[in-house]
Amino acid sequence: MIEKILENDTNQLVFFLFASITYGSLLFVFLIKIKNRKENEEKRFIKLLSNGIKNKMIDSFSDVEDIYKGVCKINNSDNETDKSKLAKWLRELLLNLIENKTDNYLEVKKSIVSFIKKAETESPHSGLPELERNIIRDIENYTNLKNTESTKQKLNELVAAIQARTESIKKLQGITKWSVPLSIVGLILTLIFGILSFIK
Question: Tell me: the pLDDT tens digits for 87-136?
């Protein structure tokens, strides 16, 4: 009787561990794929824009946005381009240009710097999540209207939103921290149980 109970408890524990490890492994693979996709998008954007500027095929900031949207597969119906990420990618291009100077270095540098300023001027809060971005815009509007009470209320909302965002990030970091060790343990357990099944 006791042996059966222990056996059932062991089976449940093994199943729970296997399910947890599988979930962690899948999450880890998913996050890696997202990271690789973003890195590939950035590299492609930098290469296309660099060639376009050097060959004098880029005439305006709208051309830069079109390349960005094409690489990131963003539809024109989307409300707003993430100009914070766009400015970051443009800075990466600027660093690459400085490291590998070309004949028309100054001309290309001037174009990139102007594009960065344009991106940051058009949408200074575009890199923020939608909730925080909307709150900050409300704060700016209330500040211009000198509405102190509404400004204070929105500041409290912003603090609450930041706290909630911080907790979410901490939880996600905790999950990703254990995903690799759990994947290794899962692989080891899979091998062990596979060997045991052959022995039986």
Answer: 888 998 888 888 877 667 788 888 889 988 888 787 767 667 778 878 88
Contact 66, 109 (CB under 8 A): no
Residue 194 located in a structural domain: no
In a domain, 135, yes or no: no
- The model's pLDDT over 52-75, given as tens digits with 9 standing for 90+, comes to 888 888 888 889 988 988 888 877
Q: How many domains does the chain have?
A: 1
Residue 28, in any domain of the structure: no
Greatest distance between any 2 Cα atoms in the chain = 84
Q: Which domain holds residue 90?
A: 34-127
Separation of alpha carbons 151 and 128, rounded Å:
19
User: How many other β-carbons are positioned within 10 Å of the β-carbon of residue 161?
Assistant: 17
How much is the pLDDT for 20?
61
Structural tokens at position 62: 């709208």
Helices (H), ranges, 73-147: 83-99, 105-122, 130-144
